[in-house]
TrEMBL record:
It holds the Pfam family MS_N. This is Malate synthase G. The modification Cysteine sulfenic acid (-SOH) is found at C612. Monomer.
Length: 725
């Protein structure tokens, strides 16, 4: 049901949501809102379409070039990309001038959590992941090994617990060291003349090597129960409780160590969700509204208990000299809008065309964010009263300029001061990486981050050169020259544009949510490379990754980053082709792995509307799969198929084989629809099939059009029959 408002047709439910909930109390009247919205659609919908046409035009020219230019000649290729405007002429040097940026983004370095915004339980957990228990994160993951009785057991395992304590105190020795002693020797922490004094087991006293690291406490000054430390701009709480089951076994009464973890969280409306219609969009918008008003809650059963989760309060302390102060209890929230590709039925033009979804997201998520400015909001989000929108999947600087202009108009519509809406630019398409300087320039007054979304970026790498030849194996992409150059070039470009202490330079997702030991070993390389933030898939990962930001002084590292931009740009244009002749076993492995990932992800997307899942690979390692990883797998298979590395029959056979494996993996899920004996009917199976076999023709290799189509079919089927085929 639609309501005609001026020249727009707005879904009745969206209209009611906007008028009764989103516009309520923000000082924008509904008449001018709809009038302004209509003008924005008139001004931007056509321009959006032209940008998509330009993507198509360039891809066609590139495809034709590859068909005519065999063998591939890198020198000629680079001149060609420049000639066709794919590589842009660069603007003069400049520095960004974004103002009103919260300290979590401008001054602090730490993990960035991402969470699907359609899941209120997860979203609340993410917002509260500003602080995380190091003891829980270590105890609950593989960081502590399973040797000599240290493994997890049904109840509390004191051997494992002791390992956790040992590990955590060694971490304290590293980041807030004591003079001539270790934290495990302490029997009592106390306040002495405004400083921390530590009494050791031999009866002597010591203090911190860097006394300024101690900045406050909670509890009675004579015996505080919480000690607050600051190191490289982020905080650590040492919790004391001698009556606690853990604290009572600890000589100093330490019951836990809390780390400031997810400084920022991206509430995702894009690749981690499955939103195909107005109903889905409304669920997302309502959760965002609840977060901005501070009232969101989620009730659920966990381990036999009913839990209601709400947003965490700020944390109150006394400084060493007794002055009260507080720290934020919640992550600073950013919202990732969708990109420029898709349109939504939620708003239609008078001639029956769907409006670009990115335009609707920009207007509605900004409007909703205004609720966090309201005094009545239970918890404000941005101390600077800024709105943070992350914009994904933009190709080149004209698309960034489009978003920048759109944000200007949204600010005018909502009566917000210019550049209230900040922009995070995902550097995740090849045309953006190669023209990053120009892209940043277009958003220079509102940009707050660039982030290497290497997953989408890999999908785009494959699709752009689809016709050039067979690509290297998927896992080899991570070490390929183009990717290394892209990661370095992003940091360098951000620093040259003045991002240090103004904006985030972010790095991509750790996509193995259960492999925390490996994460601790490898993800330190991201801050070491100059990134002030990096993505994590869960609050636990945020807590553990926070340790890296205590070990690495990112702001100091950023002062010493150098590199040759033009060399990096040349390397980025190296196409990851391979002339290797793979053995049957290698081909089999690659197909199994990609197809298992595709099916495992798609079946939950299509049948259950879940946009981000943990799916085991062929070695049984759970991998975070979202639309970007799906893009890689489907594009990779389409590429190998196109160049004869594998046949249609091999892929079809493997789809059937893996369908049975995926059924087994989901055996515990009561909502799961089997696909292994249902190939001809399963809509999810059809979607997976199409993603591979029509992969080469998909716009920039994106998976959205096919996923949306089949999910809508599944919803229709469900509405009609109450079950899925
Ligand atoms: C390329 C890109 O665009 S990457 C960006 C998109 N990716 C993401 O957003 C990743 C988000 N992460 C997730 O959705 C999940 O962590 C998954 C799907 C990877 C794994 O989910 P699950 O298998 O359900 O996780 P698992 O069972 O280990 O843990 C669930 C618990 O962790 C919490 N949790 C897991 N991930 C998150 C998260 N991102 N934010 C908040 N809480 C989370 C859940 O709230 C739940 O705890 P609860 O029972 O107290 O509510
Ligand atoms: O959005 C992130 C990515 O890697 O893609
Ligand atoms: Mg992405």
């Amino acid at each position: 049901m639609y309501k005609e408002i001026g020249k727009l047709k707005v879904a009745q439910t969206l209209c009611e949501f906007i008028e009764e909930e989103a516009l309520n109390g923000v000082g924008v009247d509904k008449g001018s809102f709809w009038k302004g919205f209509e003008q924005i659609v008139e001004e931007f919908a056509g321009r959006n379409k032209s940008l998509l046409e330009e993507r198509k035009r360039l891809q066609k020219i590139i495809d034709d070039w590859h068909e005519k230019n065999e063998p591939f000649d890198p020198g000629r290729y680079q001149s060609f990309l420049k000639e066709i405007g794919y590589v842009e002429d660069e603007v003069e040097d400049f520095t960004i001038s974004t103002s009103g940026v919260d300290s979590e983004i401008a001054n602090q370095s730490g993990p960035q959590l991402v969470v699907p915004l359609d899941n209120a339980r997860f979203a609340l957990n993410a917002a509260n992941a500003r602080w995380g228990s190091l003891y829980d994160a270590l105890y609950g993951t593989d960081v502590i090994g399973g040797e000599s009785g240290e493994g997890p057991t049904a109840g509390y395992n004191p051997v494992r617990g002791n390992k956790v304590i040992e590990y955590s105190k060694a971490f304290l020795d590293e980041v807030i060291p004591l003079k001539g002693a270790q934290h495990r020797q302490v029997v009592q922490y106390s306040l002495s003349d405004g400083s921390l004094s530590a009494k050791l087991s031999d009866g002597s006293n010591t203090s911190l090597i860097n006394p300024e690291a101690f900045i406050g406490y909670q509890g009675d000054a004579a015996d505080p129960h919480t000690w607050l430390f600051k190191n490289y701009g982020i905080h650590i709480e040492l919790k004391i409780d001698r009556d606690d089951p853990i604290g009572s076994t600890d000589e100093a009464g330490v019951k836990d160590i809390l780390l400031e973890a997810a400084l920022t969280t991206i509430m995702d409306c894009e690749d981690a969700v499955a939103a195909v219609d107005t109903e889905d969009k409304l669920k997302i918008y309502r959760n965002w509204l609840g977060l901005m008003q501070g009232t969101l809650s989620a009730s659920f059963e966990k381990e036999g208990k009913r839990i209601t989760r709400v947003l965490a309060a700020d944390r109150e302390y006394q400084s060493a000299n007794g002055d009260p102060f507080s720290l934020k209890g919640r992550s600073l929230l950013l919202v990732r809008n969708v990109g420029h590709l898709m349109t939504s039925e939620a708003v239609m033009t008078a001639n029956g065309e769907e409006v670009p979804e990115g335009i609707i997201d920009a207007v509605v998520t900004s409007l909703i964010a205004m609720h966090s400015f309201d005094e009545k909001s239970a918890y404000g989000n941005s101390a600077e009263k800024s709105i943070y929108i992350v914009k994904p999947k933009m190709h080149g600087s004209k698309e960034v300029a489009f978003t920048n202009d759109l944000f200007d108009r949204v600010e005018d519509l909502l009566g917000l001061p210019r550049h209230t809406i900040k922009m995070g630019v995902m550097d995740e398409e090849r045309r953006t990486s190669l023209n990053l300087k120009n892209c940043i320039f277009e958003a220079r007054e509102r940009i707050v981050f660039i982030n290497t979304g290497f997953l989408d970026r890999t999908g785009d790498e494959i699709h752009t050169a689809m016709k050039a030849g067979a690509m290297i194996r998927k896992n080899d992409m991570k070490t390929a020259n183009w990717l290394q150059a892209y990661e370095r070039s992003n940091v360098l470009q951000g620093l040259l544009a003045g991002f240090r202490q103004r904006a985030q330079i972010g790095k991509g997702m750790w996509a193995m949510p259960d492999q925390m030991k490996a994460m601790l070993e490898q993800k330190i390389n991201q801050p070491l490379s100059g990134a002030s933030t990096a993505w994590v898939p869960s609050p636990t990962a945020a807590t553990l990754h926070a340790m890296h930001f205590h070990q690495v002084n990112v702001q100091e590292i950023q002062l010493h980053i150098t590199g040759n931009r033009s060399e990096l740009r040349t390397q980025m244009q190296e196409v990851p082709l391979s002339d290797h002749v793979w053995s049957d076993k290698e081909i089999q492995e690659e197909l199994e792995n990609n197809i298992q990932g595709i099916l495992g992800y798609v079946v939950r997307w299509i049948d259950q509307g879940i946009g981000c899942s943990k799916v085991p690979d062929i070695h049984g390692t759970g991998l975070m799969e979202d639309r970007a990883t799906l893009r890689i797998s489907s594009q990779h298979l389409a590429n190998w198929l196109m160049h004869g590395v594998c046949t249609e029959e091999q892929i079809t056979g493997m789809l059937k084989k893996m369908a049975k494996v995926v059924d087994e993996q989901n055996i515990q899920d009561p909502n799961y629809r089997r696909i292994g004996d249902n190939y001809d009917n399963s809509l999810a199976f059809k979607a997976a099939h199409e993603l591979i076999f029509s992969g080469a023709e998909q716009p920039n290799g994106y998976t959205e059009p096919i996923l949306h189509y089949w999910r809508k079919e599944a919803k229709k089927e469900y509405a009609k029959t109450g079950v899925l085929k």
